[in-house]
Structure formats: C-alpha cells, structure tokens
C-alpha cells in the first residue's frame, strides 16, 4: 500500500462555548490521507488550532508523505519532524495513518495497539460558569444521567473555588468522584490552600493547579499535598515529561493528541507513566475524532482510567454521524467500526468546507 495524496479542508467556524474565557467561534479542519488501495485516513482537528495555517503546512509536507507505505509511521513522522519540526501537523498525520491501519485490517485502532479493556468510566467535564448554582445543577443532572465522576473547571479565583468545591461535594454526595482543574490559573499560595481543602472533601485529583512551566512550584505542591497532582496537557514533547517525573513534580501524567504528536506519542507517554508506576489520563476534549484518538489509547492501556466527556454532551459532535455516549452506569463502550471507530457525516463536511 502506498500513500497517493493528502487533502486538508478548512471547515466553517462554529460557535461552541468552551470553559473559562474561551467564547470565540471554534475552527475545525479535516485531514484526509489517500492510498492506492482506496483506503483513506480521516481526522477532524480539535478546534483551536488555525486550520488556514495548516493548509500551508500540509502544502509543504505533502511531498514527504506521498509515496510512502502508511504503515511506516515512525519513518514518515521522523522525516517530517527532522525537516519541518511541525508539531500539531505531525499529530494530525499520525492519527490519519493509524486510521488507515485500522481500516486496512478492519479493526478499531485499540485492537492493533493491544486491547486491555472494552469500556471505560467517563467523567463529566464542565465548562466554566458564573455561579455555584449552575455547577451544582449541572452536577446533579450528570449524576442523574449515570455519571459517577465529575470534573470542575472553576472560576479561577481560589477563594471562591473553595466554596464551589464544598457546595458541589455536599450536593452530589460522597459517592461521586470529583476532580478540580483550574487550568493553571492559581499561584502557589492559592493552589496549596485549595489543595488542602479539596483533600478534606475527598477529591480524586487536582489538575494543573499552577502553570506547568513552574516545575519548582509543582514539586513543592506534590510534596506538600496527598491528593494526586495531574500535569501534562501543555507539555509539548515526549521528552518534556521526564523532567517532571524525575523531579517528582507530578503524580499523574496528562497527555493530549496535539501536544504528544498523535496516538503514537500518547502511547509512549502512557508507557512512560506505567514504567514509573503512574496513571496516565488522556485529554478527550475537542472534536469527536480527537476524543476517539484518546479513547483508543485509553482502551489499550492498564493505567488509563477515564474517558473525559465534555458536557453538555454534543457540543463538539459536529460533522459526525455517530459519537461516543455513556451507558446508564456511566461507561463509554469501545467502538466496533474500524480505524478511529466513528463515522463522519460527509454531507455536512461538503456543506461546511470553505477552503481546501
């Protein structure tokens, strides 16, 4: 099998509200890699990257991809990174190549990676809201829907957030798994104060309490608190994780397809975490196919526990015919279709393509 062509579509921006201050229309793009056997790899980008810039990047790298065997992922991607250093574009290419591999063998990708499980517990991942009541109402709605875990993206004022966490715990009860992710907005003092309070409230983890660039601060927080500190979403290379592990500045590794360079990179980070006795939690946040890429990694690894489900559900499910859903016990079941496992709505793609 040989790669014969590459196409990248810029899709019409769509208004999707996201957590925190992100209120702008979300940009989407669709990459397609074609082969001489009629099998193609397809991936819809996560939303925040500039797809118009990606068109230019793919114009530059297409000659380094066309003509190769799509199963030669490491060779193709090493050649691209050595020549161009294209981080996000590399992740898009990697996921498309994995999609081709799954479709060629007629299996979902996690079966090729080495399946460990066929379902994963989901946690509801919130947007940012203005009032405690809105968080509580959403939490109760999620619990009623079957979720057993709930992650809060808070106000980012640590004093208010302590009260928010107390209110959510009281409303949702002791049986609900809770996590907190202030998206790196606290300073060291605020992070320690919040961390001590949510330990008392039996939260499972404390994610990105301060900027990940402050490794000294993270080391101090990990040393001072018993709650698991989760870091890694903004670490931009596989090698960057090692310093956090060696310095004991993280308890659980967080990884996403864009920063880890696709499924291949996420698998490496998950295995790195396992080698150090740590959990690894991929970022299922973005387009449905970005979620699917993470899901394949989660299904293939012993140390991945959760599917991060953006709520309200459906806000990122654009351009898709089928999407991931939780069952009444809060689990997401493995897809059975080949490749990434979820079908694109090509009619919607055609209607919303603005540049190719």
Classify the secondary structure makeup into a structural class. alpha/beta
Cα distance spanning the termini: 25 Å
Please estimate the helix content.
40-55%
> What is the C-alpha radius of gyration, as a whole number of Å?
20 Å
The CATH topology of the largest domain corresponds to TIM Barrel
How many E strands? 13
Mean model confidence by pLDDT: 92
Low-confidence stretches: none
CATH superfamily descriptor of the largest domain: Enolase-like C-terminal domain
CATH class of the largest domain: Alpha Beta
* Helix-strand sequence: EEEHHHHEHEHEHEHEHEHHEHEEHE
**Spatial shape:** globular
The number of domains: 2
CATH architectural group of the largest domain: Alpha-Beta Barrel
Main beta sheet, described?
A: 9 strands, mixed
- List the total number of helices: 13
Query: β content, as a range?
Result: 15-25%
Which characteristics define this entry?
single chain; 356 residues; alpha/beta; Enolase-like, domain 1; TIM Barrel; 2 domains; 9-stranded mixed β-sheet; 4-stranded antiparallel β-sheet; 13 strands; globular
Condensed summary:
The chain is an alpha/beta fold and 356 residues long. The protein folds into 2 domains: 3-106 and 344-355, Enolase-like, N-terminal domain (Enolase-like, domain 1, 2-Layer Sandwich); 111-333, Enolase-like C-terminal domain (TIM Barrel), CATH 3.20.20.120. The chain has helices at residues 51-61, 73-83, 87-105, 109-113, 132-145, 158-172, 188-200, 215-224, 240-246, 257-260, 262-275, 288-300, 346-352, and strands spanning 3-14, 26-35, 40-44, 119-125, 149-152, 177-180, 205-207, 228-231, 252-255, 279-282, 306-310, 331-333, 353-355.
